[in-house]
Write a structure and sequence with these properties.
PMP3; globular; single chain; mainly alpha; 52 residues
Length: 52
């Protein structure tokens, strides 16, 4: 299941974070990072998914 979340995280980082933690603070942080730059959003999303 983590592989699917990582694939979603690369395509659309907030979706990968949402599937992992829901609408928590990490989701909103990832939205901001993705808007500021796509790569920081991907890095944050993969980190959140790999951490759990």
């Amino acid at each position: 299941m983590d592989l699917i979340r990582i694939i979603f995280a690369v395509i659309l980082p907030p979706l990968g974070v949402f599937l992992q933690v829901g609408l928590g603070k990490h989701f909103w942080i990832n939205i901001i990072l993705t808007l500021l730059g796509y790569i920081p959003g991907i890095v944050h999303a993969v980190w959140i998914i790999a951490k759990k």
